[in-house]
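Human: I hope this is not a bother. Would you mind checking the protein record under this note? Thank you for your patience.
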Amino acid sequence: MPDLDDLIKAYDVRGVVPDPFSPTVARAIGAAFARVVAQAGDPVPAVVVGRDMRPSGPALVEAFADGVRGVGTDVVRIGLCSTDGLYHASGAMGLPGAMFTASHNPAEYNGIKLCHAGARPMGQDTGLAEVRELTARFLAQGVPAPAAEPGTVRDRDTLAEYATYLRGLVDLGGVRRLKVVVDAGNGMAGLTVPAVLGSAAGLAELPVDVVPLYFELDGSFPNHEANPLEPANLRDLQAAVVDHGADLGLAFDGDADRCFVVDELGAPVSPSAITALVGLREVEREKAAGGSPVVIHNLITSQVVPDLLQAAGARTVRTRVGHSFIKAEMAREGAVFGGEHSAHYYFRDFFHADTGMLAALHVLAALGGAVTPDGRPVPLSALAEAYQPYVASGEVNSRVADVPAARERVVEAYVRREGGGPVTVDELDGLTVSHWDHHPRWWFNLRASNTEPLLRLNVEAADEDIMIKVRDDVLALVRQGQE
């Protein structure tokens, strides 16, 4: 009996194949998922299922589909796809969905991202706890006998529909021709980029020349981890952008739902800057349509996000870190856009779900249309500068023996004694201390990991010296007494 608490987590299923994540477990999860989504509303006609390029995917999908069919529900298999491709299929078909992927995890892992019909998220509080409970029962007592009329399985290719849908949201027709290096990391962007930015799905050519890097689908990740959040995994892209004289570079993670951007000099553009850039485009479009734009951002995005978006006439809503919180707020607020500093970007017009490819199209459109007053093209480094006025530490992790005690030392120094002067404090997600309304301007967030004895620190300030001082002072408190 596998430890399902460790396998079926707060937001998705994730584990090593085949122990604990075996076809037997996948079959039980399939039966449980079909039961849970059916109980959440009207009877569900089918479940749409996709997978990434991991070698373990086909057997797990087959087992999951057997579980779904066994309780009388049909299955629509869309085969190889990105996670946002699965969200598109779920949204367009109005069906609950299951995406088999372990995102950026190593090759021995696989997992499932589950969603309700219309790409609505399924997390701990929105059905996943029930899936875990029912899966445990099925594994202990046996998966229910096949229904009198088991469900059917049919295959459907949705790649061209996905590409057409995205292109309909951002017009690249009038932009200058751009050269872009794309690092797919041997992940699913190797399938989706040629379809969306090229003509592989039968669509018309765009004014974009793609230089491919690691487009071969290979779940063993032979070149580097498909995790662009780690700086080492961007080095090949950065070098290729400079070598090819490209206008920009794009890096996608394994399931291609996150997109990272580097400028023509090979320098990374902060995901917060991309949130501000794309957010402003969506705000202006919403205002032009007579709407009152709302934008969601999590609490570790740069202060530039609310600064610029509020100045543009949007209302901004700050949330906890994590896609389920962003998606829930997107739906609750009717937000036009949402962004996280982890490079997840969410769009109302994409079923309130996240899609790195749509964010990439916005960046291409913004760069391709940016010109100086005398008509010269603006490079991405200059365009991005306006969206990166502050200095951030990035996330710094500290392994500590006693997380509560370390946090208490920081509270004592910065809250009770106001070590940096008058501050505002909130505990929406961890501890956020802000001195932004006074000089010198800085803020930090200190969050505990849900799974490890780690404290995660993010610091931002108006200048580098202040950021370094606050970062080092907080880290000294956190790591006090550690070897």
Remarks:
- The mean pLDDT is 95.
- The longest helix spans residues 124-141.
